Structure formats: C-alpha cells, structure tokens
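#struct-pred
JK: can someone run the complex with zinc ion? inputs below
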Amino acid sequence: MTTPLKSSAQRSQKAGGASVDVIVRGGKVVTMDKDRRVIDDGSVAIKGGRIVAVGSLAEIDKNYSARETIDARGHVVIPGLINGHTHVPMTLFRGLADDLDLQEWLTKYIFPAEAKNVTEEFVRVGTRLGLAEMIRGGTTTYCDMYYFEDAIADETQKAGVRGVLGETVIDFPVADNKTWPEAMAYAEKFVRKWKGNPLITPAIAPHAPYTVSEEHLKQVRALSDKTGAPVVIHVSETRKEVEDITKQKGASPVDYLARIGFLSNRVIAAHLVHISPEEITVLKRLGVGCVHNPQSNMKLASGVAPVPQMLQADLDLGLGTDGAASNNDLNMWEEVDTTAKLHKVFTMDPKVVSAQQAFEMATIRGARALHLEKEIGSIEKGKRADIVIVDLDDLNQTPFYNIYSELVYATKAGDVRTVIVEGRVIMRDRDLLTLDEKDIKARARVFREQIIKSLAPSTTQTGKNRTGGLAQSPSKRP
Ligand SMILES: [Zn+2]
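RT: done, structure tokens with the ligand placed:
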C-alpha cells in the first residue's frame, strides 16, 4: 500500500491560471478517449461537475489553479467504471440461494423471498449496501431495474452516484404495484419526476419477454416514445426462454421484440446469451445497448454470450454484475477479468477479447450501452467528471509492464483509493464520505434475520438454530 500522504487532499497554493474546483494532479491518466491516450504524468481539471481540461501535469499547473488539489502521483487515474446491469437492493439476498439454474432460483426462491420481504425500507437499505460496495470498487455509474425505484433514485442521489434507474413493470402483482395500470402510472410519474436530474436517468424496465405480454411491451415502447426514457430489459438469458418464445411467437426473443416494434436506440438489453449472427445484425442496426453479465451467466449456468462476435460487429456492449444474489458481488474488476478469460477458454482462442477490449466494455463501450457516451465513459474535456484513482504499487500489481494488463488481470477492487462523481469526491483514501458503512452493515443484518424468518416453514421455527429450508445460514457469524 502507498502512504496515505500521497493522495491526501490539499489546498492548492497556486494563484495563477484559470480557477477551477478540483485538480486531480499527477498520475498515469488512462483517458479511454478516441485515441486511447495514456498520459504518464497527467492532470485533470474539473469545474461545475465537468472536466474542463486533461493534459500533462506541467500544462495543467501552468494554466489552472484549483480550490482543491488531489495528489494522484504514483497512482493511475481512470474513468469511473460502469456497471451496466444490476438489481441493487438484491444485495440483501446475497447468498440466500446458490447453485441453481435461473428458473428454479427465480421461481422457487427469489420471487417468494421478494413477495415476503420487499418494502420501501428494504429497498433503501439494500441500495445503500450495494452503493457502498460499488463505490469501494470504483463504480461511478450503474444501471438498475427493481421495485420502489423512486426510493433507489433518492438513495443514489444522496450517495452521489450516477444511475440509469428503471422501475420494473411485470405481469403479476409485486411489492410496489399490484396491477399493470398502477405499475405504468408509477413508471410515468417516476420518469417525469427525475428527468433532467444531473445524476439520475429515470427508465422503464419491463422484466423480460417471458414475464411481460406483447401488448404491455408495446405500451412500454409508447411511454418511452412519449417521455424519451430509456427502457431496460432482460433478453435471451437462457435457452429455455428462447425455446418458449420461439414456440409462442414463432421467432427468437430479439426477432420477436424487433417485429413488435419494441427495440430502439433507447433500449438497454441485458444478457443476450443465446443470439444468432442475424440477431447481432438486428441489434446493431437498431442501436440497442447490450450488457454482458459473465459471472451471473456462469453461476446460473445460463450459457456464454457470443462476445467476440458482438465486438466484431461493434455493438454498444457493456458489462454488468447483475444482482448480488446471482454473482454474488457488485465488483466490476472481477467482471472485466472474467470477460477477458471466459471467452478465451470458451473459444479455445487466447487472442479473443483482449484486456484492453474488456476494459473498454467497463468504461467507454459501457457508456455506449447505456446511451450515455456523450457524457461519461472517458476522461475528456466536456464530459462529466466521473474519475477514479487507483493504486498501482500493491504486491499484486508489481512489477508493472502494460496498463490494460495491470488493470484487467491484476488490479482488485481493494486497490481503488479515491472516487469522484460529477466533480464531487465521494470516497477519499478509501473513506466513504456519503455513506455510513457501520450503520449499513447493522441494518443489513437485521434484514437477514427477517428474511430467514419469512422463508422458514412454520413447522421448523421451533429450534433455536433453525434457519428454515432456504438460507444456507452462515451460523457462525462473528
Ligand atoms: Zn438481471
């Protein structure tokens, strides 16, 4: 570990130059701009939440003076990571049911656990837990789909994190809305309330083609047309989904969604595991944002998405963790590492999905997947100042040869030091500034007890150590 002195905040002593809010000074700046510039001794000037200049340390020192200088010398400065798909409150279900396929996991465990436990308070506590974990790992933007999304937006804004947040609409009664018209009314109100917020992009999230009818999917498209809101959905996650939709609709999920006019360049589709070369062409033609979730797909044994072909077609392809109940963490460093390795072993070709391509999927290509590439995903003048400072000299990173290899194969979430979103420091030298870690853990553990109780068959509630049939309880919690 480096000495804390190295990146502690200091008041700038300089008087000359244009005045800005913050200068991230020194450090190896990995811009992820069009030319993939890496500036060895670089600085970034930030004003009003946006990047006003990126250049060499000498150049920025000469032209700018800041209210606050963050010393990044000896560290690497990267664009904030983008988690393209998750269900953030589900962190409270982390480890509740493992080692199952999607259908069994969802219908026997997750849907019943949600029906018995999800309230606005549950969502708030789970969101704070997930946000704290994501900030610690250098994630500055995430795309979510869940219930009570208005509360998620509120917590996300308070924590200072950026989110594309989709209110889930689905064809059965759920925690926040009991009927389809209620759910659509909630979604519209939610979108109108948050539209234009600098951090929150409100979205509509029909769960999947197998849980939302054709008529309802068309209504979602119409609401998206009316409000301009993005649409978040799961597509072609499992072989069973493809078989069922093909049987019912006479087309695979992507073709079916294209045929009914659902797909557009406002859609963000997660998974896309079982898709053909023709479907890749359709996704490219319609400008659909795509999100690969390698660890969740591996854990649920859903399959392996054709990522090398998707990259070859230049799809807007990002990376996501999916919910912590199917991963079981929200760590984007693991997703980039897994992405670069999974496709090599699956194709038996070590040259597919390079470290740089994997890192692009977590940054600039991930921004394209969320249709936010004009705002985030790279360190460039004019973009939002979402910037992460990462250690570069931990044992697992020594010695250093190639920056993308170092970031993708060797760096861990624990190497993230300081996190800035919209120009605001939300973690400094590993100290979370907007969230109370101790309180979050205590509240999460209270929910754990409640969840276990809610799922225990009544006949097993007698013994003191019984936790019910579902939770494989870590009974020796310290
Ligand atoms: Zn998901």
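RT: quick notes.
The CA atoms of residues 169 and 184 lie 7 Å apart.
The longest strand covers residues 18-25.
JK: thanks, will look after standup
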